[in-house]
Amino acid sequence: MNTKIQNTLNRLHNEANKNLPAMFWGLSKAIFRPLKPEDMKDAYIAVSREQGELLYKTIVEKGYKNIVEYGTSFGISTIYLAAAAKEVGGKVITTELLPEKAEKARQNFIEAGLEEFIDIKIGDVMQTLKNYPNSIEFLLLDGWKEQYLPLTKMLEPNFVKNTLIVADNLGMAGVKIYLEYVRNSPKYHSQTIGTNKGGTEFTYFINPNRD
Ligand SMILES: C[S@@+](CC[C@H](N)C(=O)[O-])C[C@H]1O[C@@H](n2cnc3c(N)ncnc32)[C@H](O)[C@@H]1O
Fold first, then answer.
1. Which residues surround ligand 1 with Cβ inside 6 Å?
2. Which of 12, 45, 132, when mutated, tests ligand 1's pocket best, judged by the most ligand atoms within 8 Å of its CB?
3. Would 112 disulfide with which of 8, 102, 141, 160, CB 3.0-4.6 Å?
4. % of the chain surpassing 90 pLDDT
């Protein structure tokens, strides 16, 4: 990873670390109703540096070229993915519901010198990745948790043998049905890595031909 990328990541991680008030303000709006993405419009809710480095290392080691991300926010995780894509000659498709967040992320990608490795799709992921035409070797799930399962099922035809799906925030309630699916389906082999935010699930699509 070059200095330009590292400098942008340092700035963004520092900002994310100071961003707790925005997160708590967002959470406070959802005391009597479910949390909405708009509540978190100013919150980074990003992967940690350790998680980002693990994503980067995994993609570089395995040489995944076709990378898709659900949940851009301000682009911290995307920068790790794109830094790896740059190393292996790949590309990242990332998806963000809120246009203002996507625009800030785009500026961060330019600052890091990675914009040519990233395509941002703005809108609801179930629409922006509907009929997605390309194969997917690596998928990061880090958006609203209730969509992990429907999105994985929608993208299953795009997976190839040993596609890796990484799901963040296992501690959150919405992830439960996703975990039940990938842990019990013969099409997948799944294991939890670490304990940060409830752990991160690494799931391989091992049996494309099993129903
Ligand atoms: C946890 S944050 C992503 C953090 C980012 N991956 C990082 O580590 O820097 C989740 C993001 O998903 C976005 N999101 C929520 N629902 C979405 C949807 N239906 N389609 C696309 N993005 C969505 C939210 O607006 C939010 O910015």
1. 37, 45-47, 71, 73, 76-77, 95-98, 101, 124-125, 142-144, 147
2. 45
3. 8
4. 76
3-state class percentages of the chain: helix first, strand second, coil last, to nearest 5 = 50, 20, 30
**Nearest ligand 1 atom, CA 76:** 9
Ligand 1: atom nearest CA of 37 is: 25
Give pLDDT tens digits for 45-66.
Answer: 899 999 999 999 999 999 999 9
| Fold of domain 3-205 | Rossmann fold (3.40.50)
Q: What are phi and psi of 186, to 5 degrees?
A: -70, -10
Q: What is the pLDDT of residues 130-168, one digit of tens each?
A: 999 999 999 999 999 899 999 999 999 999 999 999 998
Sequence spans of domains, the chain: 3-205
Q: Position of tokens 């389906």?
A: 185
Q: From the CA of 100, how far away is ligand 1's center (Å)?
A: 12
pLDDT of residue 81 exceeding 70? yes
